Amino acid sequence: MQLITPLSPQKDYSDKKIVFLAGPIKGAPDWQSQAIKDLADLDIYVANPRRENAAHFNLDSQIDWESHFLALADVIMFWIPQKESDVAGRDYAQTSRFELAEWMAKTRYNRVRKQVVLGIDDSFFGKSYIVKRLETENVPVCQTYNETLKKVRSLLKIGGRLFFTSDTHFSSERAMRLSRRPFQSIKEMDAALVLNWNNTVASNDVVYHLGDFGDFNMRSYLHGKIHLILGNYEIDAFQKTPALQNEMEKCFESILAHDRLILKNGDEVYLTHKPSECKRHMFNLFGHIHGLKKVSSNGLNVGVDANHFSPISEDDVLFFKNAILNHYDYEVFL
Predict the structure, then answer these.
(1) Architecture in CATH for domain 162-333
(2) What pTM value is reported for the model?
């Protein structure tokens, strides 16, 4: 286990899963230190917002740090222990309640949720209300710290899934404007793409990105082992700046012009950037055309504009492959 604190240096934390300890600090016992000890045997990062020394505390910096690692985390562990002391001018765990509501709302409509684990001590006033409200969200509330910890540890063992995406165009004003993406700024677009990605993909999952990635500096914010199929933007960039390929090779597991992949049911798919490069007698995954077309008679567009600005899973690909080949009629492909 490696610890991340608000004083940790900026670096790439994408090589391991991250657990964020998102419970009360003011008025609460230092349960975070116990959680760090209890997770110490795992090859993960633990992000702990509790500061040893509050002498140089800056609220804006703290909020930015917490927002960044909450978005990056694979598992958010909310534990609300018994109150240790009163804090003048504030209710106990008031910030934790805001954060919990925020992350329930953010993950509600994702097909694969960010894993939020909640445990509340019986002494906490308002527990019954939270439990009742979360019944409709299908979020179980753990009754003890040990039960909460056990749930976190079990979720950290899940991974190794396969996802596909394309045409993120990180930091591209042109892509945002021409594709009419529903964002007010580049910063908002990048933040939404990162959040959706990390709500879907875990650190040890595999993602095939089918080209036009955009700003390569954004890779450090993303979960998963990423294989890049070259898009026209990458090819153009190589031609202008050959040395760029060396920098890209540091970002991705592999860089390929195209690829063939065997899915878990034994089916083979062809991965390419442009629909015009698809193989006629194979099932293809492609991008390039953004949201203009979801399916073809022998392929699926995995670009973010056609898929709710998120990567899609191997199960999604198999679902659409079956629908395209066996159920959709001729009208779908006109």
Answers:
(1) 4-Layer Sandwich (3.60)
(2) 0.68
